[in-house]
Amino acid sequence: MKKVSKSWKSFDFGPDKISPKRTKSPNDHMDTFLVEQKFIAKSHSKDSFFDFFSDLIPKTTSDLAVHSKKIEEVKVCLERILSYDNTSFLVLSGPTGCGKTATLNVLCKEMGVSISEWINPIDQDFELVRGPNQVNRFLEFISTESNYTSLFEVSAVKKIVLVEDFPNVFVRNNSEFADILEECYYKSRYPIVFICTEVANNKNNLMYNLFPQEVLTKYQITHISFNSCAPTLLKNCLRRAHDLIKKNKDYFQVPSPDTVDAILSSSMGDIRCAVNQYYFASLLGSKEMPTEKSFRVKPSAKRKRNEKSCNIKIMAKDETLGLFHALGRILNPKRKEHGKSWRLNCDLENLITELESQPENVISFLFANYIKYFGDFSELQEASDLISLSQKFFEKWSETRDLHQYPLWISVMGLMIWNSHKVSKWNQIEGPKKFKKNILRTKETLCTLDEFYINIIRKNHNNS
Amino acid sequence: MSLLWCDKYRPKDFSKLDYHKDQGMALKSLTKDGDFPHLLVYGPMGAGKKTRIMCLLRELYGPGVERLRSEVMNFTTPSNKKLEISTVSSNYHLEVNPSDVGIYDRVVIMNIIKNVAQTQQLDVNGQKAFKIIVLTDVDSLTKDAQHALRRTMEKYIATCRLILCATSTSRVIPAVRSRCLCIRVPAPTTEEVVKIIVETASSEDVDFPKKLAERIAVMSERNLRRALLMSEACKVESDGKLTPDQNIAEADWLVMIRETARLILAEQSIAQLKKVRENLFELICRGIPSEIIFKYLLDQLLEQCQLGLAAEILENAAIYEHQMIRGNKEIFHFEAFVAKCMYLYQNVLEEMKCDF
């Protein structure tokens, strides 16, 4: 559950061989680990096994697979918070494997700033000994220990505190975190950087839960959000890996360009995932990776697409769909021939699971937009019939959510199956109409149906 | 601001009622002992349900019940959503329409009844031992709320009485129905409506032509409140001179529904469906109850469509209306119905073309 070794923390680039330096804290808490991160440019001697991952760790900003503007933004921000006297916070957020931690590490190294990072202690003894609880330790770390410079640093003038591994309590208990922020705001001397991974599910989204807007403004927290890695940058990154592999042909084989393409397309902008796959593909003796050719996209005159796009069958990252992406799939259903009949070319199960958390919202969205995507009236009529049917499940008084996936199934399938003459032009997705019934209640007998007459009478009274 | 006719001449006493006099007397004798069971008053709109309820309250508490004040109550749902609902109350009773807050009506019902029921009357001898809560539009309450109602009805019978007001009992759960004395208030006959219009007008010193009153009575569908409002609207529009064949203004929402029906039959296409959808959205936003929109839309469609489709349209209307009442999001069902009608109509038109 909780991991403490350096290898865990830097699994950005897989297991590496640098053992973390643990400075024993001035106080005698054995299990609070203060990991001083050091970048040791490793000169590999002939006898030592070549370490793919440690060599691949970006050492300069140009190695980073992050957009240069973004790096600049983080840099400017770091400089600013370091120049302040009192504590200031910085929050980096973004999807997994987009280079948040790597960017910070590289920048700190360039600027000569040391990082001291909080890592959740493994406290197997905890149940027996009943030591101070995790939150207290976290607080202690952040407010006290981080104020001392490391004994191993020669002259670390500047230092930042990094929190990436949030104590688990905060996931459930957000208010406690706010208290701690409050305390740190006054106590801590060094700037604190938080790194939050963004996830689709709001329930686990630390960024959303721990740093709501009011907290951000209260403590003047700078928030920099990262996007997932762009394909070109990802390609550059793999090229670096490629060069490394070429230099060490004794240990590795060079993967075929096809495989590289497949890796690129299936890693969904996650560098960590891409590098791991690449590593796997280049191991000596491994065969060509099983790839899955996806539907051939006909090269149209307008858009140049890759003639084939293939995905790695195994080890690929799960595809995550945003709401709008999913809506697009439903509203523009694709078919594939299946003998004389046809089937929907879509993984319906996945699509539905993706949308299950908000069925009512999805159906409202579908309803607001589906008309534009139909070309044939009789089909539209059938689809609207099914959407109407699906609403039966959202009975006004039922708050049980178990049933709610069925209306989703009905309406999604209804729309996808009946839509054959799909309109291929670009349509803007509209949000569902929000309307509020305006009902007046006054002392007099009023009924919305009779308002018209009342208005006539009142108007004439006012005129005369 | 002067009072509307329908408010000004509303009977305040059972003896002043214009029709259903026997029923009035029965209600009067019901309260003779100063106590009565929970009531469920139902009947079509504008038939005088509220009038009878107010008469009953007056009979019990005296003229004090007419000193009304409206206030906004605040509630918080278990999920921390803030609700606001406007209520009308006097010292003795409280009137509220819980369906104003949609699916949160259960919270409103439980809280209001608790609030009212837990405060005991100070002077038991001088006043009645109970207060009265009038709940309107009970038929549009969610099932949850109705079940909550049945529980609270029993629990607080010592300190409060409920008067429920509904258009029809079909959507009130049997458990609630059986706990109440059901009183049906039928709509007045056309003759009664005519008589009331003419009498009301004469006490306002207006000479109201009988022919016009008859037309109004028919047009208002025996909805007395609407009939009186229509008469007054006619009066103010005619500059003092009423003629038997005067134009009676038609409510704007009715005009809009007719227009919508025309749109449906004029063209059957996807673009047209979009227009219809916008029209329906507007009607719903105006606060027109969806059952009424459905009813008039169907009427208009049947009237305007001459192709012998009546049976099929009716069949579909029955299906979608039922779905609409069971589920939520009226607009979905309206659209499905409209699309179906368009489709049927289009088919018939095409067949006719082939025949030629």
Automatic annotation (TrEMBL), chain A:
Coiled-coil ranges per UniProt: none
Entry-linked InterPro entries: Checkpoint_prot_Rad17_Rad24, P-loop_NTPase
UniProt GO MF annotations: ATP binding
Transmembrane portions of the chain: none
Chief location bin: nucleus
UniProt xrefs under Pfam families: Rad17
Keywords for this protein: ATP-binding, Cell cycle, DNA damage, Nucleotide-binding, Nucleus
GO BP annotations, alphabetical order: DNA damage response
Protein's cellular compartments: Nucleus
Gene3D superfamilies: P-loop containing nucleotide triphosphate hydrolases
GO cellular component assignments: nucleus
Family affiliation: Belongs to the rad17/RAD24 family.
Annotated protein name in UniProt: Cell cycle checkpoint protein RAD17
Organism annotation: Cryptolaemus montrouzieri
Automatic annotation (TrEMBL), chain B:
KW ATP-binding (keyword) present: no
Pfam hit, one: RFC_C
Residue ranges of every copy of the AAA+ ATPase domain listed in the record: 35-191
BP GO annotations: DNA replication
Keyword annotations from UniProtKB, A to Z: DNA replication
Gene3D superfamilies membership: 1.10.8.60, 1.20.272.10, P-loop containing nucleotide triphosphate hydrolases
InterPro entries: AAA+_ATPase (IPR003593), DNA_pol3_clamp-load_cplx_C (IPR008921), DNA_Rep/Repair_Clamp_Loader (IPR050238), P-loop_NTPase (IPR027417)
Protein known as: AAA+ ATPase domain-containing protein
